[in-house]
Amino acid sequence: MGDAQIRSRWARRAGAVLPIAVIVPLLLAPQASAVQQVCAGGPLMGGKTTVASTLADQKITIKVHNHDFRGMLVTIRDVRWDKVLWKGGIAPGKEKKVSTDVFGEPPISYKIAFDVQSNASNNYTYAISSARCY
Prior knowledge:
The chain is of the alpha+beta class. The protein contains 1 helix and 8 strands, in the order αββββββββ. The strands form 2 sheets. The protein has a 4-stranded antiparallel β-sheet, with no helix packed on it. Strand 4 and strand 5 (83-90) form a beta hairpin. The longest helix is centred in the N-terminal third of the chain and has 31 residues, at 3-33.
């Protein structure tokens, strides 16, 4: 084999490796940015409405957890847009996740109301998370 053939094979290999080296970080980047952090959270009182406000990115995830041994009835509402995000029961020891997003430039002010109809316990918590909290 001549030097020209060896250089040609090496160039083809380098030509195939270079796009892979560029594509792999691009494929991994969205996964790294999808990590969410908790912007607001706390306890929910039974038989009461708790309103939480936070500044976050365009998409938020709302999680309500029932730590009690009885079921929980709750309504999750977006106060700002006057919209019910979810209404129902959460089994003992379980949680419910709801996502919502708003078209606009972050930071976006969210106001979420948790109407807890169950009044037998105060053993409930909520967490509002997003990719970025402000």
